[in-house]
Design a protein that fits this description.
Blueprint: E1 2-5, E2 8-11, E3 17-22, H1 27-35, E4 44-48, E5 52-60, H2 65-69, H3 75-96, H4 101-112, E6 118-125, H5 134-150
Parallel strand pairs: 5-6
Antiparallel strand pairs: 1-2, 3-4, 4-5
């Protein structure tokens, strides 16, 4: 399964992945977002090896260093909000979807089963930094730890 996100193309191996969707373009997500306009969603969701729910957020700052440097909110907060909106959509889809109730039920069953892992992936593309941009280097290095902290309530792998 191949998907484009901006200038990037993602190819999910059909042997390992199932139920991969471009989450933020799904009709059920649009229904939630239309009702609660501040809702955000991740770029992709899917099931890895029949047992792991995976949410993927893609950030491609190549050529947009000013956007990487001057953000309205920290990236770990944005990703956490997107995950919350995505999980709310999964739950709402289980209850009210007229399109993909089976998809949402599969996702929900994996999320609810404590023996299954949940993975959150932040795919981060950026231009190389020069030696004068130490503040951005530090921010990039700390991002994983900050994201883990913000998502600790979900007990997931980041």
């Amino acid at each position: 399964m191949k998907f484009k996100e901006g200038n990037l193309e993602f190819d999910f191996d059909d042997q390992a992945w199932s139920q991969v969707i471009k989450f933020d373009e799904h009709i059920d997500y649009a229904k939630v977002k239309n009702q609660v306009p501040e809702t955000k969603g991740v770029d992709f969701t899917g099931i890895l090896n029949d047992s792991t729910f995976v949410a993927i957020e893609v950030k491609d700052f190549r050529g947009y260093k000013t956007q990487e440097n001057h953000r309205e909110e920290p990236l770990e907060i944005e990703v956490a909000k997107k995950l919350v909106g995505s999980l709310a959509t999964v739950y709402a889809g289980c209850r009210a979807s007229t399109y993909d109730g089976f998809l949402w039920k599969e996702y929900n069953d994996l999320i609810q089963n404590r023996e299954n892992e949940i993975h959150i992936i932040l795919w981060y593309e950026a231009d190389p930094l020069d030696s004068r941009q130490t503040h951005l280097k530090g921010r990039r290095n700390n991002l994983k730890d900050k994201l883990k902290n913000k998502l600790s309530w979900l007990k997931c792998r980041v």
